[in-house]
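Dear support,

We are seeing what looks like truncated structure output for some complexes. This example has two components. We would appreciate it if you could run it in full and send us the complete token output so we can diff it against ours.
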Amino acid sequence: MSKIAFGVWDGVVHDPQAEAEGAETRLSALTNFDEFDEGNGIRAFFGDRGFFVFDENVSLVDALYHYMNKAAEQSCGACTPCRMGTVLVRDALDKMRRGLDSPLDFDDIEMLGEQMRQTSLCGLGQTCAVALLDVIRNYRDKVETEIAHHRPIRAQHGMAYMTAPCIEACPSKINVPRYIDYIRDGRPERSLGVLLQKYPMAATCGRVCVRYCEMACRRKFVDEAVGIKTLKRFVADKQKGPQALKFTRDMIRKPLDDSMKIAVIGAGPAGVSCAYHLLLHGYQVDVFEKSDQAGGMAQIGIPSYRLPKDTLAMETDIIVELGGRFLFGQQLGRDFSIDELFTRGYKAVFLGLGCQEGTALGIEGESVARDGYFSGIEFLLKVHDHVDGIERLDMKGEVVVVGGGNVAMDCLRSAVRLGADNVHVIYRRTREDMPADEEEIVAAGAEDIHFHTLTNPTRLITENGKVTGVELVRMEQTEPDESGRRSVRPIPGSEFTLPCDTFIAAIGQQVEDGTLVEGDGIAFDKWRCVSADKGLATSRPGVFAGGDCVTGPSTLIYAMAAGLKAARNIDDWVQLGTQRFFKRSRMRDLISDNRFLASDVVEAPVRNAYRVHNPELDPELRKHMFGEVEQTICEKEAYAEAQRCMRCYRIYSVVTQHAIPEGAS
Amino acid sequence: MCTTDLAQLAARDPEAATISLTINKTACRAFPNETILSCARRHDIYIPTLCEMDDIDHTPGACRICMVDIVQAGRDKHQIASACDTPVREGMNVATRTREVRDIQKLQVELLMADHLQDCATCVRHGDCELQDLAQFVGLTENRFFDRERTLAREVDTSSPALIRDMQRCVRCQRCVAVCRHHQQVDALAMEGTGLDRLVTLRHGTDQLNSTCVTCGQCVLVCPTGALGERDECERALDFICDPEITTVVQFAPAVRVAFGEEFGMPAGTNVQGHIITACKKIGVDIVLDTNFAADVVIMEEGTELLTRLKDRSRPTFTSCCPAWINFAEIHYPEILPLLSSTKSPQQVLSTIAKTYLPEIHGVKPENIRVISIMPCTAKKDEAVRPQLTMDGAPETDVVLTTREFARLLRREGIDLKDLEPSAFDDPYMSEFSGAGAIFGTTGGVMEAAVRTIYSVVNSKELDQIELEQLRGFEGVRAATVDLGGPFGEVKVAMVHGLGDTRALVEKVLAGETDFDFIEVMACPGGCVDGGGSLRSKKAYLPLAIARRDTIYNVDRKANVRQSHNNQQVKTLYRDFLEAPNSETAHTLLHTHYTDRRREMQQTVKDVWDDITMSSVVY
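Here is the complete output from our reference environment:
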């Protein structure tokens, strides 16, 4: 760890003496600050709460110029102090670093900095002058000395990065405040444009995303998180009629020649996202899909009352509009092998295989159950066929679903719609522990589903292979362990049985057996997932993998993020034979490792304005149909919701010893 | 939609003000979730503001002028907060006049001035500008940051015949966007750009002329500076007035006479009809006519047309006298156009008659006549240049001056309206009006006037109760049933004002969910009495409409003749010139047609990507 020469953080001036004596200070707890990239030490760091310098020779004036330049570039211009202040200060610092006379002296800069900090509307203006003020107020002599000789200051290396808690929380790093700004500005099409920079499936994501962004949203310290997903759906659902944005080939950055073709295996969210970005990079892309429709788990695993099939199809069709091909009915391991793909001239392969095989519970009686037993995913496939009119599925009697995730909720709510008399959910922990979205659990409750929490199946009762009942045991919570986590254990003697006509085990999925074989040269990890490095490269050169087949069953947004990342690295690998350093990613690590974006509370009072919710169909009506339950919000609601975003932007910058390598954008 | 929330606030139970706090050491009671600004105002404590506008519920927190010092209960720390959007808290201490707060406010105004064009003497708002007031309040003494070059680089959009958007004077308060988006619901405006480039722009198209704007001018009424205004045509008007070869005819709208005195310090709602006539004569206008007269003619035409449509079972019929409504229908709902009355507006009816009938009786050459109309309306400027409304290639109406321009014109001529002796109309052909024509200036007025006449046409006798109270409310949409008798029986009529409510009603009509026979539309909330061309009132929107409207109803009440068809001059016009309502001559001269001007925006993702600014740009 490099030694801090001086600095200020959260208003506390760093005292090297105290640190030398071993005192625990905020700055001594910094991690991951040794070098930015290999052999490139970090000389100084500037953030929203202060700054610290590791190398005494760093020019503060130059560093602050770059920091304030970022602020001026990113200022939205809505409020007076930030709009004008960032520019005035930036221009003055620019004059100073060039050795010219500045129209403003440090007193003026301090006055403007204080005005920005105290009176700006949003997080950007409120925080972008903090480091500046810390420098002027504590190290005025240093900056005065730097400009005393009126000579240009030698340029320094580094980078500045602007982000927000919601952006960092999003696997795809969607610039959330920006797309909300565009709604507020009256430019929903640009808002969609922001989303489309990162993935093609905005309407899908606007319906089924698990919303890591909203969990990080600081508005919840005031009232409730901003309805980020609801707004996303609003802008994506504007894509209809003659006003819909057209996807045209001129979106492609630079078309490559025909030999530059890539195979994507699996047309799920990871594969579609990867194909989209490869197409935009100029490649020819063929997407191999074992079924006859695109969408993967979003297609078969998410019931149409949450995600209508045509909404999804409209978004997967973007691949075709951009010149990609879907090759349906093509299953890896059955119809082709990875070797064959390379022989056919594909330069690289992306595996987006998914996890489509249900995990068994491993209880007594499970292996002999032939009739009335499904894994969660098997059942959802049947539901999908029912909705598509391929094969009718009628249910009656008692349906028991085991599991507490979104797949379990989907099974439950589908069973209700298919006519089951009673639908039960069995979950071994408490309702609060259920990993499913809260909204899904509430919606299931509204549809008269019986919840049996702290309950676990122990035996499946069958007659000639037909499920007739299930034996269950009550569970109890143990005392919290050292980490505060409670486990559960069965209560001896509490066994009871529940009559059951259909039993659905929805506790997890894994990569389908037989897809990848030994000869493919792809290594698996201990959870039987495809093994891939940080850059999503597998053990076989030229083969990349992402989505559920790498992570295990996860979320749509993680899969789409993996598709983008893989496309970037495939491009690097094909063009350069190596993966380049990605500086924004490095900056994100620095921020998360040091918890810079930790949840600082909202200090000034903010007027309560509770979030809008998607209108929903009446539970009594929706129980009988697979039509979409949630509806799109109206224009007026969208404007009101967008107004709730507090724009918690923060800028972070580093000064480094050498130039930071330019990676893929 | 168009009424203010102030009444609601005043109506709140004082017992509900459960929060105690102090402002400048004065004990105050506040409602939960009320803002500091609102609480201060109720306690008569002034806090300077710029972007905020209470009666359209607009607090974007953009200008950051209204900063105050707060100390929250149980804390020592002073914080600076914006009064307009910071809620009160129990035990909070607010200080609005500390040295620090005053310095902050002063610096904020200086920063606002840094890219605001300050050629104040050339600005339409000079002397009537909220930014000037603000500079005085904060005691602005310095202007260190002004960059003229940067300011002059900004757009001035002169494409529209009606409105000028001068972004060199915009302070980004977003009031115009709010009124267009939330109240008129035309949503023609958007915010564009970031940082210093952030400005108001048109949501569709590149300039005002090619946008979805309907030029209702409500944005102009709320603009605190001279950034939004009408196209000033005083010079053209003076050219005509001062040309001895030209016979200038002035007409002025029903609402002008009740909204104009305010500019010269008379109480709101003063009827200055006689003063206007004197003023026109004084500056050299040859003939002064009354748009009210034309309103009576419009009723004859439109009423007759309505009866024909009722017979044909074609319904509903929409009125056609409001030009912003016509723009709205043509641009936003062209499918509704067949339902619009074909009768021209009073302005165009008067201009047409002035260039056909008047030359005959006065012995003037039609080509030497120029009609100048004074309107409380910006969209009338649009109407005047419609290609459908020309005679032999020349526009029927030559110049439209808004009420504001007319005030400027009088000042240029050294006239103070207060000092003038009122005079009467002296033209015996086109200046008499009935009470029915007079009430055209307020929402519900056209409908009431029409009902009086069609009842008489159908029943050959006058309606007993001619003041139709059920038509006189101020709600956004009002419906009533009128028994016409005869073969028509009961007809259902509706009146809507403000385009937000109009949009909702049009959607319903298109969806077949209404059973109205006749619908009056006025694009501006309140009707012409608060038209987009009327005088601006600082810091408030629509405060004067009610006073102006009362005067209009008084004009009707005191009128000798209260039905359009009983207007003697109208009778003479039909006898001597037009023959009968909806006659062939009347059709040729007094009716028009409409065109589909829908503007579809077709964009590609690439186009949008090229427009996206700031981070997250990958491609």
